[in-house]
Design a protein that fits this description.
2 domains; Jelly Rolls; 7 helices; globular; alpha+beta
Length: 328
């Protein structure tokens, strides 16, 4: 084993980056015991695995010489040891996946991400994402895709009339459901959800409707009508929620996501040596990497780690884990 492999021989954590949002709340504090930046601000997002200039994750708790390294430094300078051959094959200057937890105390804006074929001309980046429902209030709703029969003409008339919400497909999921939101799908998360989001590394969002509310500065938030209309897939009608059938929830060209349900006291390996994983505890708890992890905790399993570093043992509560890997 090389010195580089020895250096990355165990799981480690990354620092979350909290994002204040007008629609956010304090559930990350109550559900996961997080120490939020201040006592009152509405925190809508925790960026758990982020290679963005404006919100960069850093290694923490891994020891001297590793703590403080940014996710981008890992991707650019330690790619094979941390991310394995799958990471090497993907190329690029930034880690391609962004992982978040969302606390939605109010409806998010109705929005869309530009499709790959149109993003560059619109000055943005495409973004495919998946939502996993980790918690929800009774009656909470998601908005995704258009209602059956809605056309671009219908949609544009509704924009003028202020009735856009009537043109959007409404979903009433259960905890544990998930949905893929490809670029081009108009969407919004309704109030009352705790969502784990795994997405393509992009932060381009075109807001088409914001429920007539004001932002944190007291002013209406900017709408991007022309770019939204250029991005929306008007053939995308009434998508459905997914329910776990086996461990693989979904995969696309950017990521692969599994749901591992572990019985109390049961154990398994976090993949095999050579494989990279992002492990998120959704429910219950586990013993992993020499530590006890609870709901809301994340760990990175580097590719170079050997079999002795990979056992995961569920606590007496059992556990549900979202495990994200790179495709290929």
């Amino acid at each position: 084993m090389s010195a580089e492999q020895m250096r990355w021989n165990s799981a480690f954590a990354l620092t979350p980056v909290y994002q204040e949002r007008v629609w956010g709340g304090r559930r990350l504090e109550s559900a996961f015991g997080r120490n939020l930046p201040d006592a009152v601000a509405p925190v809508g997002e925790s960026w758990e695995v982020s290679d963005r200039d404006e919100a960069m994750s850093q290694v923490v708790g891994a020891g001297a010489g590793k703590d403080g390294l940014s996710l981008r430094e890992l991707w650019q300078n330690h790619r094979k040891a941390v991310f394995g051959e799958a990471g090497v094959r993907m190329g690029g200057d930034r880690f391609p996946v962004l992982v978040k937890i969302l606390d939605c105390r109010e409806d998010l804006s109705l929005q869309v991400h530009p499709q790959a074929g149109k993003a560059e001309e619109l000055g943005g980046e495409p973004k495919d994402e998946m939502w996993y429902v980790a918690g929800m209030d009774r009656g909470a709703r998601l908005f995704a895709g258009l209602r059956q029969g809605v056309t671009r003409e219908n949609f544009e008339k509704a924009l003028v009339a202020g009735t856009v919400a009537e043109e959007i497909h409404v979903l009433e999921p259960e905890v544990g459901d998930f949905i893929f939101i490809p670029s081009g799908r108009v969407h919004a998360i309704g109030e009352g959800f705790l969502i784990f989001e795994i997405q393509q590394n992009s932060d381009t969002t075109y807001r088409v409707f914001d429920w007539n509310r004001k932002g944190l500065d007291g002013k209406p938030r900017e709408l991007m009508i022309e770019k939204s209309l250029a991005s929306i897939d008007f053939e995308d009608h009434e998508p459905s929620m997914g329910k776990a059938k086996g461990e693989l929830l979904m995969e696309c060209e950017h990521f692969r996501i599994h749901l591992w349900e572990m019985e109390p006291g049961s154990g398994r390996l976090c993949h095999q040596p050579g494989d990279f994983s992002i492990v998120a505890v959704v429910e219950g708890g586990v013993f992993f990497g020499g530590q006890s992890l609870a709901a809301g905790d994340f760990r990175i399993m580097p590719a170079a780690a050997g079999s002795e570093a990979r056992p995961i043992v569920a606590s007496s509560l059992g556990a549900k884990l979202l495990v994200t890997t790179l495709p290929g």
